[in-house]
Amino acid sequence: MGRLTAATLTLLATISLAATVTVPAHAQTATAADTPAPQPNRPAPPKGAPSDFFGLVSEDAFGSPGAYRNAQLATEASLGFRLIRQTFDWSSIEVAPGQYDFSVYDAFVGDAARNGITVLPIIFRAPGFRGGSASGTATYPPRKYSDLGDFGAVLVKRYGPDGTFWSQNADVPKLPIRAWQIWNEPNLKAYWKKPNPKEYAKLLKAAAKPIKAADPSADIVTAGMPESRIGVPLKKFIPGLYKAGAARSFDVLAINPYGRTASAVIKNIKNVRTIMRKFHDSAPIWATEVGWSDSGPSSPQRAGAQGQAKQVGKLISLAVKNRRKLKLRGIVYFGWRDAAPYQGGRDFWGLHTGLLTLDGSPKPAFFAMQKALTAVGG
User: Fold this and answer.
1) What is the mean pLDDT of residues 306-320?
2) Residues 215-262: pLDDT tens digits?
3) How far apart are CA 72 and CA 348, in angstroms?
4) Rounded to an integer, what distance in angstroms lies between the CA atom of residue 243 and that of residue 236?
5) What pLDDT sits at residue 136?
6) What is the domain partition of the chain in residue ranges?
7) Residue 68 and residue 364: Cα distance in Å, rounded?
8) Contact at 8 Å (CB) between 268 and 259?
9) CA distance linking residue 177 with residue 179, whole number of Å
10) Which fold has domain 6-375?
11) Roughly what angle, to the nearest 10 degrees, separates helices 67-79 and 103-114?
12) Secondary structure (3-state) at 310
């Protein structure tokens, strides 16, 4: 993923998490020795749940190929994580119209697969020549929504079940990408200049057709949508999607259901399920971002070291307990390791949600996650 400009980071620091976090400064100098040792017995997923039910955001691993990345992935896998959610930065892949540089993502997908981890890509950040923001101060969708669908089909043909990546790398365990997340947080102005569910529904429709043509069994996952005071409320945005006919264009509805506690996260998911039932939709829900910080600037999600550990453990047990009732596809925790303040020194609570500290030491939340994932294993 290309580094974001200082202006972008300043604007988005109070708004966003996984889809726009730049490579952490510490990741450039981190070593494999910083990582807790992998555990010998990898927990099984919960009984009846998808094998990749528990996922993670690990920007530090993405940003540091080589020994450090492989050590992180091995440890993450040993805890029971079988999925990583990762931005596929369109602007750094399509380097010129119709010209693609897959090298960074080839390496990452391959390293993940070698550790038994699948990838959930966020198709995001249109190149300037496709209408993406040229200033770097925000991220907007392409001028032609069909361009995103065409790019998605290119990715499927590279990393999907019949993708050239797998045929060209026979030594890599084949874990094709089967789910594609379309954009990020379109109910926030940082990612959609004038958030509008009708327009996002059009983007979903334009994306779904080419991706499904390339892989008919692919899952189209909506953008993760947060409940945020600075965005369009979900009680308004999600009904707007259904009224615009979006249900025909996605297989899984994704939300980023941050809450003060694990119980609040589950309540947020329940609220969205209630909305979906009103529109007679039984599609799965994927919680594609959730987490708590142990330190950093004040936030409803800042819980302290022991509080973070408590909420992490409770989230795992509640997610499994409510999985069938809520038709929950999975949970993605943000994130693996803390990150340094943004350029200029601006801090943000979302830089402190890691299971590891900035120097790579495990927090109490690391051990709480390890214990919880082991306890719910089928």
Assistant:
1) 98
2) 999 999 999 999 988 899 999 999 999 999 999 999 999 999 999 999
3) 23
4) 11
5) 55
6) 6-375
7) 22
8) yes
9) 6
10) TIM Barrel (3.20.20)
11) 40
12) helix
